[in-house]
Amino acid sequence: MTGFNYEKDADGIVTITMDMDGPVNSMSDAFLPLLSETADKLEAEEGLTGVVLTSAKKTFFAGGDLNMLCQVTEDSAEEFFHGVEATKATMRRIEKLPVPVAAAINGAALGGGLELALACNHRVAWDDKSVQLGFPEVTLGLLPGGGGVVKAIYLMGLMASNEYILEGKRVAPAKAQASGLIDATVATLDELLPAAKAWVKAHKDDEAASTQPWDTKGYKIPGGGVNHPAVAQMLPAAAAMLQQKTRGLLPAPAKILDIAVAALRVDFETAMRIESRGLTYLACTPVAKNMINTFFFQMNQISGGASRPKDVEPQKTRKVGILGAGMMGQGIAYVSAMAGIEVILKDISQEAADKGKAYSEKLLAKRVSKGRMTEEKAQGILALIKPTAANEDLQDCDLIIEAVFENIKLKHKITQELEGYLAEGGVWGSNTSTLPITQLSEASRDASNFIGVHFFSPVDKMPLVEIIMGENTGDVALAKAFDYALQIRKTPIVVNDSLGFFTSRTFGTFIDEGVRLLSEGMHPVKVDNLGKAIGMPVGPLAVYDEVSLELSRKAQETWEEMGIDTSARDGTVARDVVNTMIGEHGRGGRHHGGGFYEYAEDGTKAIWPPLLDIYYKSEVNIPVDDAKDRLLFRQVIEALRCLEEGVLRTVADGNIGSIMGIGAPAWTGGLLQFVNTYGLARFSSRCDELAAVYGERFKAPKIVADKIASGETFN
Ligand code: NAD
Fold first, then answer.
1. Cut 0.90: pTM above it
2. Which residue's alpha carbon is nearest to atom 20 within ligand 1?
3. Sign of the alpha-carbon dihedral angle for 84, 85, 86, 92
């Protein structure tokens, strides 16, 4: 049998080594026939004393076939459901063998991989960094439908299984063992098979050991059944908390909770069938298709280097110079040192530079105090950061990133003064948030080595880096910035130069539309609540206060000084509101003494009362669905424009960039993917409706009609 190697030893133990065609073992079309032939053979095997299941690949087993899952529609749902049931029935045959079965987990066992391991009576894993266990399905809008939800409940109980099945947490073997997901670990790979075999041998005549908990009479689920007071008390709150967290926009967590509760109420086989039905339901939802498309396929495309020039060899950064040790510079220094890169952190005085380094000291001390890093390792990382005020220390940096004040004259000046310190072939990056890279690069003696490297705040938490190509930026600079982003474990997207690049430009439309709703008379609390109702993490007014109205006023002034025409952007209403808020009332945002909200010392906030007098009109009644669509469609339309104008170079960059950079709702799979599952024609006519009532800014960009005509979607 190719795919599953079958070998019986002198003790009567059969070892099944999974080695399917392709790089990983997965639930492809080949899987079920292989598993079922294996079950036939094992059931007929004479003198069988036990079974060990392991893998010849680096991973143990990679899980479901996502390509196939994306194809499921309501028409094929029944067939899909029967396929899931058939797979589970075959795994049950392995469970019901009269001999002990052990899984020897030599690599990652996620989703279907962990479910396969759970079909064994005993699980032993190699305690190595490469071995991760968990059920990531929920992060793709799905659920572990091969028995994962039900068995997690049987093994860990309702409360303890939450982080696995509802949050999709992946854990190391030691943690999985502590949770009860696996039974044992070994320190080296060489010990793995012997340990699994030893367990099988020791339990060959032990009927209890070859019986699964869910098949054991009188087995009690940890933490209690549905009538246990703690569980009964928790259930209503759990549903409400989940609703609050997902705002009803993500169907998977709600479905998983339903099935988890069902597992406590009904018998095992019925719960397993309910679980299969739940997976079938989710596989048909547009949300699952969106999430699989973007978080799996497009994410792999990006991290696989699709936006990086192929013919430039790897560009490792050894020594990075960071100019400006302020809020951004100190964060960039920290993430660089964490990746083992030598850092020169330069500010105008030694004191300012030291202050920037102190930020890393604080973050590292926190890690040490939480037991997540040794003191020695933390000291090693800190030693990589040299705070300085001396230009000469920048000598031989192969990458310099400037993060000084947002002022074009200053940025030009330091480029001219300090570019000469770069090592031969070194690259100059700017972390500007609003200034066009092409104009910034005019001060450079070699604009082909000048590139935008746009981080997000707080740098240590935000996963995205937006790389911006100026008109003259070359491929080596792109490769350098791209490889550096991966080196510091961020996700890079690559865009062409444009005012506000991709992320700020698109995000600006969300804020602008929120401000418009306010100025049309909608209650500010309602504006922000509707922003959250579409799935944005924070409402448009609250987030504008955070990024500060003052900042956009300054940016506007700078653009005017630079002679940049911004009339094509729909920012006029926001500009008027900003002028009123700052010019007449001194409300520049949270860090400027308050903005739309006022902020108390204890961290709470409330609407700044005069805001209602200025803007609120109780007679105005904008339909909620219109207001929600306005807040979402403005962003989608701007993303489409970025694609049409070539600011976005790929759809994947647009989707990943919108979710990771500006918090676009996960259920959309990104702002461009949203259009695919909404339907291009439907999107276009909804845009027409909104444009007729609210203005031309809602007209769908031409690229939508072009795609409809060619029968394509945004991929
Ligand atoms: P900041 O004011 O906190 O820090 C700027 C630092 O630059 C200060 O420490 C200042 O002393 C130093 N500096 C000024 N002139 C210098 C010089 N000649 N040489 C060395 N250091 C000098 O500002 P920030 O928020 O960190 O922003 C820095 C840059 O990053 C700006 O271009 C900004 O647009 C951009 N940015 C900011 C954010 C954000 O959220 N704050 C996000 C993305 C990008």
1. yes
2. 347
3. positive
User: Which numbered atom of ligand 1 lies nearest the CA of 547?
Assistant: 40
The whole-number pLDDT of residue 410 equals: 96
DSSP 9-57: -TTSEEEEEE--SSSS--BSTTHHHHHHHHHHHHHH-TT--EEEEEESS
Q: Which of these, 442, 153, 106, 444, lies nearest to 274 by C-alpha position? A: 153
Report how far ligand 1's centroid is from the alpha carbon of 670 (Å): 29
Query: Residues in the chain with pLDDT < 70?
Result: 1, 570
What CATH number labels 4-284?
Answer: 3.90.226.10
Domains 4-284 and 319-498 are alike in CATH topology: no
**CATH code for the structural domain at 504-646+679-710:** 1.10.1040.50
Give the binding-site residues of ligand 1, using a 6 Å CB cut-off.
323-329, 346-348, 352, 403-406, 410, 414, 431-433, 454-455, 457
Residues facing 17 on adjacent strands: 5, 54
DSSP 8-state code for residue 402: E
- Of all protein residues, the one whose alpha carbon is nearest to atom 4 of ligand 1 is 326
CATH architecture observed for domain 319-498 = 3-Layer(aba) Sandwich (3.40)
Sheet strands side by side (includes 491-496): 385-388, 342-346, 319-323, 397-402, 422-430, 450-454, 464-469, 491-496
CA atoms within 13 Å, Cβ hemisphere of 505:
27
- The one-character DSSP state at 111 is T
Q: Within 10 Å of residue 110's Cβ, how many Cβ atoms?
A: 23
- The ranges assigned to domains in the chain are 4-284, 319-498, 504-646+679-710
